[in-house]
Design brief:
single chain; alpha+beta; 6-stranded antiparallel sheet; 49% helix; 14% strand; DUF2252; DUF2252 domain-containing protein
Length: 458
């Protein structure tokens, strides 16, 4: 790495193309001629050192958490996919890309969709993880989601013929979502959301899905700060503090605690005035390091316990915002620490664009050398376990995620280009299904290779 590394600030300027909707659609049609779907879905194999890529990624993480991280990653091929977003992004960039930029999730897989609360306390469904969000090619998100469908289907024991049918239907649902969004007025599209009532109406003739959604509707509102306090805290010397449970939950040094207090003060200055007013009623009672997820497990993540003037509680999560994993591969550790506010801003910008209705406490901050974003911890968050779905409902859920992804992509002003591309494309679902199966085989090879490395058989 060069010593004259220059930090590139995140910007959405690439989405502000001076062209009418019709002109953008025509640009998309032109892209379909230059990079037809057969070329976009051509699998050329991979050219990289898998083990070195993962080791490079993990070099920025907390060493004592690596054993647990590997245990989580290696549960199955789908878990491995979740833990290696940088590997797939590298492979996608080595292949053909549409060069149609939109705000993407960057890590769109079945487990990164779920339920969350709107500011009005409605239970909504959509994308819910944005650590890898950035401006990128729309098909990167869709391809990752399709691979997760393939791998999850295998875990569930479906035949390849059954999985193929799910993949075809899911790809067609993405197309349908793009066409539906294209027909909406800009503000109608901006205000669009999917709450659990909408989903229950769609599933009214499906007993299993209705039962599942009703369980979530009853369970999710109980996921709140009071429940977290009950489960995660204890009283010591008359003070409420987080329980320590090494290595996942561990107390932090006085210096780190002080740095995070300063970062939290910065966060409070960055949020909207109404949230500043709410937070002025609370003081910090405790902070602990608490690791979550699979892909982000091992990064610096903390829980902040806030106690209100009325003795009520609010639990916020301060989560490290690293450079997107692909970009991180091209930076030294010191360069990665220079990201400033930009990475935290990138994450919350992506969430605000793709999720539309978002946590009102969402914000960003930094310490001297690291960037973070802040959000409520477990606030009405819930998810559907795809391993507990029968084939019919697995297909319905996969289609829903692809449809939601399309609607999220269409929040970008460049999205009419996707409509133009798909409008000028035949056999889209067939081609992307073929690519999905080929790349899924590569994931299995990578999984086996890394498993051998962990066993010392490299």
């Amino acid at each position: 790495m060069s010593n004259d590394f220059v930090l590139k600030k995140f910007s959405i300027q690439k989405l502000r193309i001076k062209a009418s909707k019709d002109e953008l659609i025509e640009k998309g049609r032109e892209r379909a001629k230059l990079i037809p779907i057969e070329k976009l879905c051509e699998f050329k194999g991979v050219r990289r050192d898998l083990v070195q890529m993962i080791k490079k990624q993990e070099s920025t993480m907390i060493p004592e958490l690596m054993a647990m991280r590997h245990q989580r990653m290696m549960s199955n091929a789908f878990s491995f996919l979740r833990g290696t977003a940088e590997v797939m992004e590298t492979d996608l960039r080595q292949g053909n890309q549409s060069q149609i930029p939109v705000m993407i999730c960057g890590d769109a897989h079945l487990n990164n969709f779920g339920f969350f609360a709107s500011p009005e306390r409605q239970l909504l469904f959509g994308l819910n993880d944005f650590d890898e969000t950035r401006i990128g090619n729309w098909e990167s998100d869709l391809k990752r989601l399709m691979v997760s469908i393939q791998l999850s289907g295998e875990i569930n024991g479906y035949s390849q013929k059954e999985i193929d049918a799910v993949l075809i239907r899911s790809a067609k649902k993405y197309e349908k979502g793009i066409k539906y969004s294209n027909d909406l007025k800009i503000l109608d599209r901006y205000y669009l959301s999917y709450n659990i009532t909408d989903l229950l109406k769609q599933a009214q003739n499906d007993e299993q899905m209705t039962t599942l959604l009703n369980k979530i509707a009853n369970r999710a509102p109980k996921h709140n700060s009071d429940k977290v306090v009950q489960k995660f805290t204890t009283e010591e010397n008359g003070k409420l503090v987080f329980k320590e449970n090494p290595p996942r939950a561990r107390r932090i040094s006085e210096k780190t605690y002080k740095d995070l207090l300063e970062a939290f003060d910065q966060y409070r200055q960055n949020v909207s005035p109404d949230i500043q007013a709410v937070l002025s009623n609370f003081k910090v009672s405790d902070i602990i390091r608490y690791s979550v997820g699979v892909g982000s497990f091992g990064t610096r993540c903390y829980l902040v316990l806030l106690t209100g003037k009325d003795n009520s509680h609010l639990v916020l999560q301060i989560k490290e915002a690293m450079p997107a994993k692909y970009d991180l591969l091209n930076l030294s550790i010191e360069e990665a620490k220079k990201q400033g506010f930009e990475e935290g801003q990138r994450v919350i910008t992506g969430q605000r664009i793709l999720q539309t209705f978002y946590d009102p406490f969402l914000g960003y901050t930094r310490t001297n050398d690291r960037s973070y974003y802040v959000r409520q911890f477990r606030d009405m968050k819930d998810a559907i376990d795809v391993t507990k779905l029968d084939l019919t409902n697995f297909c319905a859920y996969s289609e829903l995620c692809c449809y939601i992804l399309a609607v999220a992509h269409y929040q970008s002003p460049t999205a009419p280009m996707i409509y133009g591309y798909l409008d000028n494309t035949k056999k889209f679902s067939k081609n992307i299904t073929t690519w999905t199966k080929l790349y899924s085989q590569q994931v299995h090879k990578d999984y086996d290779l890394f498993e051998k490395y962990l066993r010392g058989e490299e």
